[in-house]
Automatic annotation (TrEMBL):
This is Selenocysteine lyase/cysteine desulfurase. Coiled coil: none annotated. Keywords: Lyase. The keyword Lyase applies. GO terms for molecular function: lyase activity. It comes from Pseudonocardia cypriaca. Residues 130-276 form the Aminotransferase class V domain. InterPro entries: Aminotrans_V_dom (IPR000192), PyrdxlP-dep_Trfase (IPR015424), PyrdxlP-dep_Trfase_major (IPR015421), PyrdxlP-dep_Trfase_small (IPR015422). Pfam families: Aminotran_5.
Amino acid sequence: MRVAFGEEFDVPDGYLNTASIGIPSVAAGEAVAGAIAGWRAGAGRAGAFDEPVARARAGFADLVGVGVDRVAIGSAVSALVGLVAAAVPDHARVLVAGGEFTSVTWPFAAQAGRGVEVTEVDLGQVGQRAGDFDLVAVSTVQSADGRLVDLDALRAARASGTRVVLDATQSLGWLDADLSWADAVVAAGYKWLLSPRGVAWMAIRPELAAVPAAAGWYASADRWADVYGLPMTLAPDARALDTSPAWYCHVGAAAALPWLAGLDRAAVHAHCVGLADTFRAGSGMEPAGSAIVSVRREGAGERLAAAGVVSAARAGGARLAFHLYNTEDDVARALDALTAR
């Protein structure tokens, strides 16, 4: 058992794979287990899940720094980004990073039949080139290797008229950065937000068009009254983009997100990046200001696994992720695995 920032975690020693699957706190895990126990006993009631959905939504709003009225719920990043992609004008020019996670890029590429043109450039050029495009869609932190996009350059491009859509899945929960200025910020919950897989959120500005293509009863202005028939009566805010929630996922998220939102953001950032940069220094790499490290060394993944370190193989490297429940002992274990003869 580990204690991190006031919460208990059952995370095993050497677990450095949060960028793939985050480990819930004991409290979040017990909340989900309790809800499932109620389901097994026939005590589950649909209306009872409105409250955890609302708490998780509010937690996401606080993490991004926007009003709760700007947050929509969904099940995955690609589904939420797809609502934005479906609304871009015909022949829109969209800029993405080369090698970007496909949940960010494919929803726009799928609009090619309308003449939407998607251009890939190196991540380091995204900020410089952003002003030449109608919309930029990019991860704040790259999934493959932890590189950070130039947020200041994107914010400047937005001030000049370029729309900016950010996938914060690999940063929200550890990166101390203001994202509230973006047109849309989307994130899945099952990584750094320490929630069950099956829930995602999008903070979206009203002026950024999105098509409620998956609208159903949960997107209604009065969700419990408008479950049958027409006309369509969508909610007046971002809830119009909601899809019906995965109930038990939101129960876990309702425990995790408000807690994360209430932490000292700078302290969490310093802890996670500090561990990652300590590992980088021990591996002969320069500091990078990211909680994700890619080790591109032959046999690295096998060496780490043999030492009980859980990592992920991504883009030709062994990817390590350092979150708030990790410690210097995890760093030492990984370094020992890679330097042992």
